[in-house]
Amino acid sequence: MSNKITPEVVRHIGKLARIELDDQQVEMLGRQLGDILRYVDKLQALNTDGVAPMAHAVEIHNVLADDAPGQSLTADEALANAPARDNDFFMVPKVLGDS
Amino acid sequence: MSEQATEVLAIVGLEIHVELATETKMFCRCRNRFGDPPNTNVCPVCIGMPGVLPVMNSKAVEYSLKVGQALNCELPSYSKWDRKSYYYPDLPKNYQISQYDLPLCKDGYLDVPLPDGSSKRIRVLRAHLEEDAGKNIHDNPAHTGVDLNRAGVPLLEIVSQPDMNTPQEALSFAREMQRLVRWLGVSEANMQMGHMRFEPNINLHITRGGTVYKTPIVEVKNLNSFKALEGAVTHELKRQYAQWLEDPEGFSLDRKGKQNRGWDDQRNITVFQREKEEAHDYRYFPEPDLPAVVVDDAWRESIRASIGELPLARRERFIKQHQLGSKEAEAMIQDADTGNLLDDATAMGAPPRRVVNLMLGRMSAAANEKGCALGQLGVSAAQLSQLAIMLEEGKLNATAGDKIIDHMIANGGSPLEIAGKLNLLAESNTAAVEQWVDQAIAANPDPAQQVRSGDKKAKQAFGFLVGQVMRISGGKAPPSAVKELLESKLSAK
Amino acid sequence: MNNLLKLSALELKNAISRGDTTATEALEAYLHEISVQDGALRAYNEVLVDEARDQARRIDDMRKIGESPGLLAGIPIAIKNNLCTTWGRTTCSSKMLANFRAPYTATAVARIRQAGAVVLGKTNMDEFAMGSSTENSAHGASVNPWDLSRVPGGSSGGSASAVAGSLCSAALGSDTGGSIRQPAALCGIVGLKPTYGRVSRYGLVAYGSSLDQIGPMTRDVADCAAVMNVIAGHDPADATSLDRPVPDYLANLDEPIKGLRIGLPREFLSDALDPEIHRAIENAVEVYRSLGAEVKEVSLPHSRIDSGAGGELSSFAVACYYIVATAEASSNLARYDGVHYGHRTERDAADIIDLYSRSRAEGFGDEVKRRIMLGTYVLSSGYYDAYYLKALKVRRLIKNDFDEAFETCDILLCPTTPSPAFKMNEKTADPLEMYLADIYTISVNLAGVPAISIPVGLSSRNLPIGMQLIGGVFREDVVLRAARMFEKASGICRLTPPPLGRDAE
Ligand SMILES: [Mg+2]
Ligand SMILES: [Zn+2]
Q1: How much is the ipTM here?
Q2: Cβ atoms B21, B186 nearer than 8 A
Q3: What would the pLDDT profile of B80-113 be if each residue is shown by its tens digit?
Q4: Is C155 annotated as catalytic?
Q5: What domains are defined for chain C?
Q6: How far is the CA of B73 from the centre of ligand 1 (A)?
Q7: How many angstroms separate the alpha carbon of residue C324 from the centre of ligand 2?
Q8: Which of C80, C122, C193, C427 is catalytic?
Q9: pTM of the model
Q10: Which of B414, C223, C289, C352 has a Cα at 20 to 30 A from B286?
Q11: Secondary structure element (H or E) that encloses residue C350, with its range
């Protein structure tokens, strides 16, 4: 039994995740994600009323660092792995503005 | 539809991003510094390399809590970090560490002075801490360059309620916020360096014929000057009204929701921004790499104690304590240093009125010339108080005082030394003063006669003679002694 | 086979400090073995010969001038390829990072080097630690030394294969849902996942940040304790690493634990379990009883394993894990976009979105894409509450079960895996079935507690069977002592796979 996710949804998620998908992958992922989601749906059977969500494995707080400068990289070190650079900048296709 | 009375109310809310003046970035220990060569204040953490982890900057948290406290916010005991996902080349991890549902500060307000002398309370919804993005450089027409020096700089995002109703109110709120963060010493708030950026949310509530029409809310992105803020709000109000007139039913919040627009600095208008390919879905979720911030009563109390007196309270105090006019008091709270100078100098025994006159006189002029704040002229409270006391005691006249101010700014030194060096001290030798008075009377027989006769020109003539004595003495005659001598010499006869 | 290769890490260290051999000699023996055997096992992505020789020489020089070269002096250790090192490449066995050279070294790696260990190289893994068989690797699958047609488990399969196959003395792995313990069980070695926050994650390429931990993979429990002595402890660069003193795990290792209270989670010993594994676990329980341990049943209701009509297994913990881990992964892996480092498409990108989408499509393998897609889905608008938030609440329930169990028990005992090593390609077609390989290990990560897998015997097919001992938060010491106790009493220790033709060299 398979609980398919529609191709539109798969494509939308692919866009959000910035992964180009061909039609065959959309079909396959629709099927596989559907199966997995059907599986994880079993959680709905559990009553979690009033249960606090647990985002961290061990709950600690106020771990702070002093505002004291440490070591930075040189521009060459920073850009050593860059697939493309323009002088001391990382280089990308033309974009508009800042984020 | 026939002509009906139409009432238009502008509704403006403001998001203000303030870069905090910490030594280092929010989550790594690279320098937080503007203007360095590209990609030199970067490390594996702020480049978002595989395997790195953020560690929060204690100073940034403290600064944020200070602002929250100054904004009369609640500082909740539990606050956490979240990731906000979106792809952009200046955001190396493709998520921004921010705060979503549990910010450091919430539910406060700021009383904002308006130009007419009144003030308005603008509610603050929240203030949360996050990391800034880097910068995309568009110099090259063929592609974009990315500099990550700014990536990870601590950024405080303050969000107001939509409590402003005019461009002027939005501007006043923004300016008051600038003064406040400078006052607290948490940001330089330098607009040219991008330390403060504004994003106003604007729409209109238009009442006609008993019906309230709401225009779509427009958020104008990334404004980095007061002029742009005022211009953008002004233009939006006009534009939205014009568009509503064309289509009162269609141009509505219900139908169109929220839109983003940009600001065109050249043409002074807001411009439509092409929507991103898919609607924003930031997929916020709790940041697993960062523990929560827990603020207990002791911490809250120490923040409260560290705030000190805020601008508006200080203004009220100055008015009461030193009988300042409201304009004078306003000038005294342009920044914290200015008022501190007044407080420190008076604490050293200087008469407040003298200090205020010096500060708002020659010192203000000098600060204007230099383009700096009064408190940054390099004149210390000790210098100022000594000078004010010398003036009060008649050891100097006003002109000499101004000369000493100029000299102190240029070369430092104590007023007494400078007065000696420049030969500005009032003559205390009575014989010398008497000689100058006699000279003046001899040289000006007619005015002297008018004073003696006590006629209606006597008062004017007396002033003239005082001036003459001062001129002859080269400014060194103490005015009080001159007046006394003139009176005694010209009355009995 | 060189006799040096048969020594445990601690034995080798002692031999070096006695002057019976040298770090260099030991290293050369391992390098030789790798050159002969790694063609078959494919445990390594990269052997870092020059750097290893430098380090070995340094250790020998220090010894010559009488300086103490450290707790792990001269021990050749392999590290999983998701641990950053400034030498060699850190690829996560992905095309995405095929040429990535990290400008910094992971804290755990820096610590073992500081203690004198010789880093042999980077071991193969499931791409970005996503998998349970090491078949999802851009470098090709690793092999189980016990049966070359079978998987070594995963995702730390290269490390497990290298330890079991004597291609290193010990190894570091990482464990997000069982990635140290499951391959340790399948390869017949010892593997420990420490308490979350016990070992710094700085420099471990993140998969599921709230679940990931680095841990030792060794031939016996004492070696495991020795490595823990070095890697455990607070690191200011990891805000989730805990600032608590680290006990000397070796000091009390052989102390009998009188009246040790062992809990058997009822839910993990159902009929669904492979009968051979069931028997091995029962035998282990008998060993503990004979040592005077109190054994009793406990319940972890939210880690329950159900078998459906068709015999398929299911568990709340697995469901919870695949939401939490993939949600975090979708965000952790967003940074691989071809801009600052890593693979970038060579096809002409029309714009930045194109550049991202193509680079990621080309750089990631199928399983990684699948998990990013799943994680993106469960966080996306409209699904967050139903999936992600729900999973976080279930996670709390799972953790509460453990807390309750540890009120009356010192450790929990259960299988590590539902079956011994499976065949290559047996589970690759069905992602869900592969996920179930971690059915006994996953809830431990969700709860953040420590757990070890040690060998408890061999199946009729001569494949290792692993047992898992789970401790309370920070009770690695108890877990290690209990494991050591079994090792000694049962004599099941340092299982050696049949020769792979190494004698035919
Ligand atoms: Mg923001
Ligand atoms: Zn940095």
Answers
A1: 0.96
A2: yes
A3: 999 999 999 999 999 999 999 999 999 999 999 8
A4: yes
A5: 2-260+484-490 (3.90.1300.10), 313-389 (no CATH)
A6: 18
A7: 28
A8: C80
A9: 0.92
A10: C352
A11: none
